[in-house]
Design brief:
There is one protein chain. It contains four helices and no strands. By secondary structure, it is mostly helical. This is II family cellulose-binding protein. Keywords: Membrane, Transmembrane, Transmembrane helix.
Length: about 130
């Protein structure tokens, strides 16, 4: 394993962090719109609040594990540069685990988001 192996993850992790930031910004916009809406006390909005809270927390952890993965990947490259091969391999392995956790949380957040849309669609069908 040489220094280029961890470097291969840099573009992927950067794109993931960008996607996570976009999800956060969209979620923040939705929450602000719901709050500004005159119907923010409606039963439909109240049903969505627990999911919104979970999504905020999940995005926070997604971003945290993504940044941790990026940092560990950089440290792995540094260790490999310093010819500490064993340490570099371990840091890279932990980096991949952090990235995998971030992706699993991302999937869970998508599922929560889909459930929230189902609530809205069911409300529309009831009208």
């Amino acid at each position: 394993m040489d220094i280029t192996t961890p470097a291969l993850l840099f573009p992927a992790i950067s794109l993931l962090l960008l996607a996570y930031t976009n999800r956060f910004l969209v979620l923040a916009q939705v929450i602000r719109q719901l709050h500004a809406s005159p119907q923010h006390d409606s039963p439909l909005v109240k049903k969505q609040i627990p999911g919104l809270k979970r999504r905020i927390l999940m995005i926070q952890y997604m971003q945290s594990f993504g940044v941790l993965s990026f940092l560990l990947c950089a440290l792995a490259m540094f260790a490999l540069f310093m010819e500490a091969t064993w340490l570099g391999k371990w840091l890279f392995g932990i980096s991949i685990v952090a990235l995998a956790l971030s992706l699993i949380l991302s999937l869970a957040e998508v599922l929560i988001s889909t459930n929230a849309l189902s609530v809205v669609v069911q409300d529309m069908e009831g009208d």
